[in-house]
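Quick one - inputs below.
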Amino acid sequence: MTSSTRRGRSPEGRAEVRRELVAAAARLFTERGYDDTTVDDIAAAAGVGRRTFFRYFRGKEDALSPDHERGLSRIAEVFADAHPDEPLLSLALRAAETVFDLYTVDPEVARQRFALVGTVPALRDREAASVHHYRRLFTRELAARLTGRPDGELRAAVTAAALVAAHNQALHRWLADGARDADLPACVDHFRRVAPMLPLEVDAEPDLAEVTRRLERAALALERRSGSR
Amino acid sequence: MTSSTRRGRSPEGRAEVRRELVAAAARLFTERGYDDTTVDDIAAAAGVGRRTFFRYFRGKEDALSPDHERGLSRIAEVFADAHPDEPLLSLALRAAETVFDLYTVDPEVARQRFALVGTVPALRDREAASVHHYRRLFTRELAARLTGRPDGELRAAVTAAALVAAHNQALHRWLADGARDADLPACVDHFRRVAPMLPLEVDAEPDLAEVTRRLERAALALERRSGSR
DNA sequence: ATCTTAACGGCACTCCGTGCCACAGGGCAA
DNA sequence: TTGCCCTGTGGCACGGAGTGCCGTTAAGAT
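Output:
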């Protein structure tokens, strides 16, 4: 069942090799640690040559979270397939929630990755770059739908950043709490609380500042009232 | 003026060596490209040994933006030195604006770095990680000041993300426009437009949703009024 | 059975980053 | 001055990442 069996590719042989590499990488990373695991180790554990590893992944880091590209595609699909009349807030929330699926299909793997990413600096930076790509995609899609609106680009950037931040906060909380399937609804609910904080529905031109000042005064009054009780 | 002059350190010799390394790195990166410049090249251009380079920088990437740590310290200072009664919105804006100083003290260097970061994937990822650190710091400081408030952590995360996003958007726009000193005030003004989008002053307990609905109604009314003119 | 195709393994190479060590040169004390 | 300590330095060697190249080998087509 080693290399000789697999020489030359079989129809689904590539997918199998890939899975074995991912599994070997995850196992070795958690057992020995990321830095103490070489690419040779991973390849050997998967029963392939070192050179082959680099035909499946761009580098050592990619073996841990190989679904990044697919995640970006999924989000792009959500935006592309959306009905043009769907409110932007609804669309944005839906798009962000699709990312949960990618992270929660296999809670055990998610926990493993979470622990690893939290420990190893190199993986932490990679995660940051990955999140950055998601944020960029959201920003682009939102900006395209806010062209011409007042502060369209700024609101797109802010909304995208807020969405991604809220998503990650909810996800990290869920992961740190044990990544139970039963807690997933609460996790998504927590994420949805970001909705009122998004500068999306406030589309009226006149001036945001005036409305905000009014809001501040109201808040101040409410605070005084609640503070005196 | 080469190595023999500098053997053994002089009082400000270390700072001088560091400057020479940074200058050499920036020059070579822009002339030959990042990937075609080796650490040996940089060290040789600065008149030091390869080994010495790694005593001044953690790696090749650090030679381009060596001020990251200092930037984090500056922001931490702003938060630490702030008057406890300063409104959170004011504090957050002040903290974010201090980052501008770091990027705008030398517009020419900033432009150079901007072009490089936009081109080279490795530097792009590094930049993302760097931004991530800023965002984390903001999140932590804001969360500490929002403990106990409704959705405190979430609002801290969202506000931090929004601030950083708005800052970067304004900065990138300024850089892409030519990084003129004269345009700096406009750049900061653009950034400040993020203020009304921050879920910061809505501190009253009752419920965010109710206030938001009110805000929406007000906005709608304003929109109707301005749309009919 | 033969040909074509494509994935594989191995080799060699460059470069990054680090541990180790010998050395140079300034400061200090006798 | 002489000898010693201390610190920054350069050179060397090593391990590991990632890449180009090429011979090999098995699967599928004819």
